[in-house]
Amino acid sequence: MKDEEKKETKGIFIPENILRHKKLFVGAKLLYGDIAFICERDGCCTKRNIYFAKLYGTNVGTISRWVSLLSKYKFIKYRIRHKFIRIIFLSNADAETINKVIDKTIRGAIDKSKGAIDKSKDIHKEYREHSFDAHNNINFEEEDFDFTDEDINKWLDDINIK
Predict the structure, then answer these.
(1) Which residue among 1, 43, 52, 97 sits deepest, i.e. has the most Cβ atoms within 10 Å of its Cβ?
(2) Where are any strands of DSSP class E within 24-122?
């Protein structure tokens, strides 16, 4: 086996107080482990409910309930920014860390959006220019239409129009 293949995989860790909690569903406990892993790695978790729903083979509503339970029992904190960005933190995250991560995450999301908008504008501009060129570069010459009245009458007869 090559050295790259021998890399140790890091699993998720679920603290005993969460593992033994009587009012949390098993799925919520696993979800905490995944959120904690992502928070340890990235400082926060911005994964959407649909990501976790696909991961666990459940629906978005179930994930939403699990997140709410974890928040209710104060295992996680989350903030919602700009309606669509949810940022999850572990309960031990301090306010300063949360604010720094939120600023960084929001800036990153805005930069991504601007990049996507700029790319979309470029594609649209290129399409408009191409369409304009294609339309204007069609030059009809007299010799392209050298049909006689006889040709036209024959075509009309073929399709039974007179």
Answers:
(1) 52
(2) 76-81, 85-90
